């Protein structure tokens, strides 16, 4: 309704002021709740442990599969592995574990023996029919025959529960190095030294600061020196199953590595991928 000229609009009743204030607060809370839910879903993706974010705001890693049915142990191990910059996919029974291990290329599989549906022995035996992915067996059994059985079925290493986390991490690093044909934790590229254990790089004995993702890309290419590594392979080994990223993230990080370590270090093979000669 329009007011007549010269007349003043009556003051708004106090209860209307309260309603307006309440509506504003509810809208703010709703937006905050939605934003937090979205943020939480990105930080804790379904089917995988929450990933520790690096200095670029994204998780970076060599890719592991953890098959463990005990929720607490699975959660604590996955968190610890993420803190070491590994991308971790998880499975809580043998059937799902076998499917994931067979359908993706992991750098290593951490496999519990006592699993529902398919136990660790069955998973390992079937996986070895078509995959040579390194497998580290976890078990509460300390029987010598169990270790013999696992190794005979194709396990690459064996760890008895309870175990120390540093030992598990050391065994994982050793498995990955052996798979790539390296037996020590350092890789030398002329005057460049890459230390997988301390995640450091030096050039002519001078420390070079790389981001976590830059280090993992450089390490992976160096471990496959002389081989052209496709963009798809790099994506598969550096991201977990719940991550999305920009299509040009490899170009951005390779450019940064070249800028810090030399333009000629990493060659681009158009339509194929990247290579360190």
Per-chain topology:
Elements: H1 14-43, E1 63-67, H2 71-83, E2 87-91, H3 94-103, E3 108-112, H4 120-127, E4 135-139, H5 144-153, E5 157-160, H6 165-179, E6 186-189, E7 192-195, E8 200-203, E9 206-208, H7 212-223, H8 231-238, H9 249-261, E10 267-269, E11 273-275
Parallel strand pairs: 1-2, 1-3, 3-4, 4-5
Antiparallel strand pairs: 6-7, 7-8, 8-9, 10-11
CATH superfamily label of the largest domain: Response regulator
Instruction: Specify the number of helices.
Output: 9
CATH architecture classification of the largest domain = 3-Layer(aba) Sandwich
Low-confidence stretches: 14-61
Give the key terms.
alpha/beta, 277 residues, Rossmann fold, Arc Repressor Mutant, subunit A, 9 helices
Brief characterization of the structure:
The protein has 277 residues and is an alpha/beta fold. The protein has helices spanning 14-43, 71-83, 94-103, 120-127, 144-153, 165-179, 212-223, 231-238, 249-261; strands at residues 63-67, 87-91, 108-112, 135-139, 157-160, 186-189, 192-195, 200-203, 206-208, 267-269, 273-275. The radius of gyration is 26 Å and the shape is elongated.
């Amino acid at each position: 309704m329009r007011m007549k000229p010269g007349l003043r609009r009556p003051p708004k009743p106090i209860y209307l002021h309260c309603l307006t204030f309440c509506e504003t607060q509810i809208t703010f809370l709703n937006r905050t709740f939605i934003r937090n839910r979205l943020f939480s879903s990105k930080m804790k993706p379904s089917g995988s442990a929450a990933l520790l974010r690096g200095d670029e705001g994204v998780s970076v890693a060599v890719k592991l599969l953890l098959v463990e049915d005990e929720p607490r142990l699975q959660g604590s191990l996955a968190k610890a592995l993420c803190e070491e910059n590994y991308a971790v996919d998880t499975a809580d029974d043998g059937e799902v574990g076998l499917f994931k291990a067979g359908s993706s290329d992991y750098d290593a599989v951490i496999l519990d023996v006592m699993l529902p549906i398919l136990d660790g022995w069955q998973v390992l035996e079937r996986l070895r029919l078509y995959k040579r992915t390194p497998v580290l067996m976890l078990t509460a059994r300390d029987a010598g025959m169990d270790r013999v059985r696992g190794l005979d079925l194709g396990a690459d290493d064996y760890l008895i529960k309870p175990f120390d986390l540093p030992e598990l991490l050391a065994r994982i690093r050793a498995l990955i190095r052996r798979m790539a044909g390296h037996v020590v934790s350092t890789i030398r590229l002329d005057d460049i030294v890459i230390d997988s254990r301390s995640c450091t790089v030096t050039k002519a004995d001078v420390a070079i600061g790389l981001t976590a993702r830059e280090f993992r890309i450089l390490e992976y290419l160096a471990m496959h020196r002389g081989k052209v590594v496709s963009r798809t392979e790099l994506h598969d080994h550096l991201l977990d199953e719940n991550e999305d990223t920009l299509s040009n993230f490899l170009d951005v990080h390779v450019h940064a590595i070249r800028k810090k370590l030399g333009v000629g270090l990493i060659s681009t093979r158009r339509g194929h991928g990247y290579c360190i000669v």
